[in-house]
Amino acid sequence: MIRSKLPDVGTTIFTRMSQLAAQTGALNLSQGFPDFNGPQPLLDAVGRHVCAGHNQYAPMTGLPALRQQVASKVLRLYGVQVDADEEVTITPGATEAIFCAIQAVIHSGDEVIVFDPSYDAYDPAVTLAGGRCVHLPLNEGDFRIDWQAFSDALSPRTRMVILNSPHNPSGALITREDLDTLAALIADRELYMLSDEVYEHLVFDGARHASVLAHPQLYARAFVVSSFGKTYHVTGWKTGYVIAPPALSAELRKVHQYVNFCGVTPLQHALAEFMAEHPEHVDELPAFYQAKRDLFCDLLEGSRFRFTRAPGTYFQLLDYSAIRPDLGDVDMALWLTREHGVASIPVSVFYQQPIAGQRLIRLCFAKREETLRHAAEKLCAI
Ligand SMILES: Cc1ncc(COP(=O)(O)O)c(C=O)c1O
């Protein structure tokens, strides 16, 4: 008998739904990845760098040119000067950054506050570090943080709080006022922050992303994580980065160098080159994805699903209570895939304690126009 360190972890719903979509031929709007390619010059650059022989280990902290590009972007977008050598680390995906940040500072018995619904990578990483996640529900409806509940949950063991904005799965955005409130509540505590900002460029309707990088009091204790995979439509590249003050970066790098040592070399060369030549790519992303959200939502106005348009990310939540109130969301997602050919993700899987009676599924709209039209047609026919 193996004494599992993660007894509650099985195959994730993302893998299961993608497999079911493949088996049944359903349109896969479940897992969060585009069904279109990344920018051609970026793809071409990878081939060139592979052929030029950039195929050996990259520096442990990441290619200097790419770290410099990240620092330049952060300065341009958030007005913050970070040191590319001391504060930026390139990682194999945001996932590795999240894992290493948690391992670097969480000790046995520490508590980590996460807000549900939450991305599934946080809890296992905390458990493996010997810590315990304290799951607090976001407000129903708008998915904002209840700061009173947060304040009540703080204990002498609380060592970290994890924020995710724009938020997967709801698309909700944290505001600058939220960050000020958090800073005031934790000012006197020895508490770290993990700010998961992988959807930082996917913010709609003229809103601006409130990055923890631009909040000096919070940044002083933060790991801020982002993902090139999300930003450049290449999720399979699993390349991301983490920005943290020098002392925290140093601790994170101690872990990172033994988890993976470095990210994939030719991808880093290609990303550095593309970022230098196409800084406008990130500026165009909000309009690019907002057009997809609006196309999808306009078409769904003719359906029996109820929804509020996502303020950020590339996910849209749909309330199906007018269609199959008898089904829990996992059964609804299975039914929708098998009977109507559209795969989605049930929102309850993002909760430790699912909300009774909640009838929400998540669909990814990072898809070509024809895929979105096709999916909407199927959903409107229900
Ligand atoms: C909130 C959130 N954080 C992190 C990640 C992981 O990013 P990466 O693919 O770069 O590891 C994802 C991917 O879906 C995500 O949704």
UniProtKB/TrEMBL annotation:
Gene3D superfamilies: Aspartate Aminotransferase, domain 1, Type I PLP-dependent aspartate aminotransferase-like (Major domain). Residues 27-379 form the Aminotransferase class I/classII large domain. GO terms for cellular component: cytoplasm. GO terms for molecular function: kynurenine-oxoglutarate transaminase activity; pyridoxal phosphate binding. SUPFAM superfamilies: PLP-dependent transferases. Signal peptide: none annotated. It holds the Pfam family Aminotran_1_2. Its cofactor is pyridoxal 5'-phosphate. Keywords: Aminotransferase, Pyridoxal phosphate, Transferase. NCBIfam families: PRK09082.1. Belongs to the class-I pyridoxal-phosphate-dependent aminotransferase family. This is Aminotransferase.
